[in-house]
Each structure stands twice: as C-alpha cells, then as structure tokens.
Design brief:
It is built from 22 helices and no strands. By secondary structure, the protein is mainly α. The protein starts with a helix and ends with a helix.
Length: 386
C-alpha cells in the first residue's frame, strides 16, 4: 500500500528533528487510514524521542496488532519498555519477537540479553550476547555486556581486559587518534605514493589519510620517506607507532612512541599510542594512567581521553577516581557508549546496582540512535509494503 502524503510529510519532518510537526502530520495520516502500521510505528518513535513512554508503548503495540511483522514497531516498543524500567518480562518478550522477525539483527540479540540480565536471567543473557557475537564478532556492545557480566561474577581483574577489547572494537577509539592527528578530510579512493607532493607535510597528511583508510602499506611507505630525510621526526614516528599498534606489534609501537616523546614530550598522538600499549600489558596500569593523565592535559575536551584514563584507574582499583573520570566523559559526550558502560562498572564496584542498570539503558538508547536503527528498520518495512 502506497504511503499517503501526510505520512510522507511526517517522515520528512521526523528525520529533520521537527517532532511536534511530525506528530501533527501523523495524526493527519491516521485520519485518512487509522490502521496504517507505518504511522503508528513512526508515532511510537516520536513519542519515544520525547520520553513519553506510555504513549510510545500504546502506538507501537497498535502497529504490531495490525501487522506482527512490523520490525520498527518492535524496536520502539522494546526501547520504551527498557527506558520506562520495571517491565522486564514484557521487554524480554518484545526483543525475543524482534529477534524472530529479524534474526540477523545483532542489536535485537544484544537488547534481549540486556533485558534478560535486568530480569536476573543471567545464563540466558550470556547466551543472547554470544549469539550476537556469532552474527558479528566485532559487536562492541555485546562485548561490553559480557565485561559487565564478568565483573559481577569474577571481579574487575578479569573483566578489565574485556572492557578494553570492547573499546578496541568500538570505532570511537580510532576516531580519537585521528582527532588528535587533525585528519579533517579522509578523501576518497586509494592514495598513490608517487602522486603525493614530495614534501614532509604532504606526505604526513597523506599517511594519516591512508591509516584512516586502513591502507597500512601506503602509510608505511609515506612515513618511511619522511624518516629517511629526518629520522628524528616525532610526528612521523607517532604515525609509525599507530600503524604498528593496529597490526598488533606492541613492542615496535612502544619503541616508536617512546622515541617520538623523547623528541616532543607533549605530542598527543605519541601519548595515545604509548598509553594504549601500556594499557594492554598486564601490570602496566600505573604507567598507562600516567600517560593518559598527560594526554588529558593536552586533549581534555575529548570524552574518550577520560574513558581511557578511567579504565587504567579501574585496573589500579582506584574506583572513586575512575568514576569521576567516567562522569566527566559523560558530561563532555552524553552519547559515549563506552563511558556509559564504564560508569555502570564503577557503580557496580560500589554496590549501586540501580544506577548501573540505568547507565546501561542510556548506553542502549544512544547506541541505537547512533546506528539510525529505527530508520533502517522503518525504511526496510515501508519499502516492502509498497
């Protein structure tokens, strides 16, 4: 069935954030056809955006009653139950249904696990997160949840490596390095070494773009050309350190970062690489914390810097200081999923279980919003209905 003009208007308004006008357009669409599941699903999403959970639940439920295959409505309904809290039985059922309707949707299994965990079905939660990782081994949020579960069962010492692994799967960690590097335009298409202007700055800029594109061979060639002319170029050494880090060559990365810092003790990219290497090594949390403190002085406006510092503080069992660093990260970027999970972990160490669960729910909200998951499911469903 083709979408009505008011529904198309509502979709356009909703995508631009004009919630009030979109709601009005949805009601116009319902006046023409009150059993259109796409309108009810969109209304549920809009109600959820405004934190009107009961209305979101009612609209999503109506959409599902009309068409039990409306995946976007299941997503809105599950998020509404989760954010409202205290309705975990219903939440489990909804996420289970979404996993049935869209079995390859990783987020459905992640959310199902979180609902099971909140309802104290820990074994079922673990099974759901492992299923999510079977579908996508790089699913960071499932790994964060496994880290939280490990913290509850085994303590911080065994959970911390999982937190760090989840962080490495999260694209935000690489984004921090390229933010520190100042890469503004990654460009498009492959970089040809012979076509790069033969100057230091042009080669380093191109090497940074190549690293962002994960073209490590081209980046290595460009960095090598710079170091051939000046072996003491600190910025080139920091790029080499990052390239080694991405290829799991920790010793080489450490050597390049230390050499860069001996030449420029405040070079943020070298501090990042050295801190990450230390954080990965057992027993070096104290060194990692010192490096990340230095990095926070250089780049304290970026949330992830404080997250990295907090993780090192957790490893030192300095839970109060870690919690403070996580809270600062959340203030800088409320949508930082890694900070939300870390703050939940620090609350758990203090026995503040309700606050920890709230942070996990907020992480879920921001993660699904960042993915644009509602619109992806909605567009797939709306397209299939025409």
């Amino acid at each position: 069935m083709a979408r009505s003009t008011p529904l198309l208007t509502a979709e356009e308004l909703a995508r631009t954030g004009a919630v009030g006008a979109a709601v009005a357009a949805c009601h116009e669409a319902l006046a023409l056809e009150d059993r259109e599941p796409r309108v009810h699903a969109l209304l549920a999403h809009l109600m959820l955006e405004g934190d009107f959970y009961d209305q979101a639940i009612a609209e999503a439920t109506k959409a599902i009653e009309i068409d039990p295959d409306c995946s976007a409505a299941y997503l809105a309904l599950g998020l509404a139950y989760d954010r409202r809290g205290g309705m975990w039985d219903q939440s489990v059922l909804v996420w289970h249904e979404l996993a049935e309707v869209a079995p390859d949707l990783v987020t459905a299994h992640v959310q199902l696990g979180e609902a099971f965990s909140a309802a104290a079905f820990d074994d079922e939660a673990l099974e759901s997160w492992r299923r999510a990782l079977e579908i996508d081994p790089k699913e960071a949020r499932a790994t964060y949840n496994l880290a939280i579960a490990s913290l509850k069962r085994e303590g911080m010492a065994l959970a911390l490596p999982l937190f760090r692994h989840a962080g490495e799967l999260d694209s935000s960690q690489d984004e921090l390095f390229f933010h520190l590097l100042g890469v503004k335009d990654p460009g498009s298409g492959p970089i040809e070494v012979a076509q790069v202007e033969p100057s230091r700055d042009a080669r380093l800029a191109a090497a940074g773009r190549a690293l962002e594109a994960e073209d490590y061979f081209v980046a290595a060639d460009l960095v090598r050309l710079v170091l051939d002319e000046d072996p003491d170029d600190a910025e080139a050494l920091a790029l080499a350190a990052f390239a080694y880090l991405k290829q799991e060559s920790a010793n080489e990365s450490m050597a390049c970062a230390l050499r860069a810092l001996s030449l420029d003790p405040e070079l943020a990219t070298a501090l990042y690489c050295l801190g990450v290497v230390y954080a990965r090594r057992t027993g070096l949390n104290r060194h990692a914390a010192r490096v990340f403190i230095a990095l926070a002085k250089r780049a304290g406006t970026h949330a992830l810097v404080h997250v990295l510092l907090a993780e090192s503080l957790l490893g030192l069992q300095r839970f109060a200081a870690a919690s403070k660093a996580y809270r600062l990260a959340v203030r800088i970027d409320p949508a930082c999923v890694r900070a939300r999970f870390g703050l939940a972990a620090s609350y758990l160490t203090e026995g503040r279980y309700a606050e920890a669960q709230w942070e996990i729910r907020r992480a879920a909200h921001y993660d699904t919003k960042r993915q644009g998951l509602f619109w992806r499911l909605y567009d797939e469903y709306a397209g299939a209905g025409e």
